[in-house]
């Protein structure tokens, strides 16, 4: 997948385009992108996405912006997995926010992105003051000669698949439900870095994974599956949080103890998939108590995988 930043580069040919934040790339997004692929194939158009960085809510109200489900890298990888050929990453800043709706249509959609088919939600708003809407796009489609269509929401057991629904499920520890809304386990990517080696001192060596999520959508202790290592995937138990029993951190970190694994993996880029929440992070009165709890966590995680395997064999 080609990735363009900004709009100085023009699409190599006419596009079928969709626009959105695509945070998490959930079932609703995936259904939309499947529709995009189908239209691109039938009409010989380039399947393209326009997305924003940062999220507009992070620009306008950073203190109240929701937790990010995916970093930009993770989002682009997920979009590429859905067969998109070209993604524009729009740097959402004051200059872009000041674009009028008409300027957005003429300069960006028609000029740079060469849109011939546009698929959006009927509640999509754009342009300065959010003045642009579906009705304005309908008028523009007739003037500039592109087709416009609205998309239907995807529901799961009566619940709309949305980034907000995934965030709520993760924050509440309903990890399996979040996976159903996403169509896959929720995951975080990161590179293994050196830590303080406390896990090794406690008898449970951990891979310390540097993540770019300043405010992760989930915290606690989890049964996980790790991809990116030879012979994988590998199972383990992960702690994502601020380590209140050790040196309390300002920024959360992700630590993973892999079962029956002792290789040196510093510098490796890993994908950690969260499968089941074991407990909330908590503060312990001493390292001996912490060590005993980690042993319980490992046992609980292994029991979870045993139940999962037994269920899969039925």
Automatic annotation (TrEMBL):
SMART domains to which the protein is assigned, alphabetical: Flavokinase
UniProt pathway: Cofactor biosynthesis; FMN biosynthesis; FMN from riboflavin (ATP route): step 1/1; Cofactor biosynthesis; FAD biosynthesis; FAD from FMN: step 1/1
BP terms from Gene Ontology: FAD biosynthetic process; FMN biosynthetic process; riboflavin biosynthetic process
Keywords: ATP-binding, FAD, Flavoprotein, FMN, Kinase, Multifunctional enzyme, Nucleotide-binding, Nucleotidyltransferase, Transferase
Superkingdom to which the source organism belongs: Bacteria
Function: Catalyzes the phosphorylation of riboflavin to FMN followed by the adenylation of FMN to FAD.
Protein name: Riboflavin biosynthesis protein
PANTHER family noted in UniProt: RIBOFLAVIN KINASE, RIBOFLAVIN KINASE/FMN ADENYLYLTRANSFERASE
GO molecular function: ATP binding; FMN adenylyltransferase activity; riboflavin kinase activity
Location of the Riboflavin kinase domain: 181-306
Enzyme Commission number, as recorded: 2.7.1.26, 2.7.7.2
Similarity-based family: Belongs to the ribF family.
Catalytic activities: FMN + ATP + H(+) = FAD + diphosphate; riboflavin + ATP = FMN + ADP + H(+)
